Amino acid sequence: MSKTTNKFAPEVRERAVRMVLDHEGDHPSRWAAITSIAEKIGCSGHTLLEWVKKAEVNSGKRAGVPTEVADKLKALERENRELRQANEILRKASAYFAQAELDRPFKR
């Protein structure tokens, strides 16, 4: 999840991207189409450009890591980090209890 708040609903994003792709030929350049549509929906041109790039990556038209793969990787990295922390805690606890056992007086 990104650190910024998402001002626009996913439906608005999808519609804006679709509008850019559909009306790209009606403008002299892709950027002209993006700025025109961005003004209409109230976002910056760079934001809409990022949405278009992301949609192209997810559809396979542009090289990159699709959103679902990136999300899965992020979740696995988080799980890996948590497991490493748990292992470190267990290692330290094991060493502590082993030392306590050695320090205990011997009884016959």
Automatic annotation (TrEMBL):
Keywords: Coiled coil. The keyword Coiled coil applies. InterPro entries: Homeodomain-like_sf (IPR009057), Transposase_8 (IPR002514), WH-like_DNA-bd_sf (IPR036388). Residues 69-96 form a coiled coil. Signal peptide: none annotated. The keyword Coiled coil applies. Pfam families: HTH_Tnp_1. This is Transposase-like protein.
